[in-house]
Queue: 2 jobs
Job 1
Amino acid sequence: MIDSDISRKAFRKNWARLIQKIYHADPLLCPKCLESIRIISFIDDSEIIKKILKHLDLWEVRQRPPPRANAPPLNIHIDYADSQIPSYEDDLYCDPDYPIELYAS
């Protein structure tokens, strides 16, 4: 039991408001008939919770296998003839008075 200065009714309304704000669903509204519901019990004993979830077959969550990755093609050929990137020769500035060989020496 939680000791608080807030009354049980105020605490319940605050709890429902927070749940509604997070999940965008009213926890005190029946999803089938849309009538108002009330909490009649609150279980906080971990052993009882475990027992209930095991009975409902919800205790051990089965993990799905990871998705299979597609393998890359084995024979990859890249044709640079259609490349939009200019070759480095096109980008070089050549000064006719100063030959490229002088840069490299």
Job 2
Amino acid sequence: MYELNLGKAEKDLKILRFDSTNPEWLRFVTACRIGKDAGYSYDMAMGSVANDNVYATIQLFETGLLSEQETIARLKTEEIYDQILFHTARALQYCVYMGHESAKDASNG
């Protein structure tokens, strides 16, 4: 488990933040997926995770079957989780190791 001093990080680092699954977020995600530099000039990026459920909708956008607006509308029906991407070693300095918990082995009942 880690604790992030977000308040200090926001004062000291260059952070790209997406508060919703908006067109800018969609362009960022699709650019990252094809290997374009879509935010690596930032120390951190924060926003919604493009997980497997979200990926299916994004793939429809990437293939041209959905417009940007249709894609965003569909994503509003998905359960979206947030993530923080640490792009630089400097950004990791704002994380403090707090300990760990062991997960119970599922095969042990």
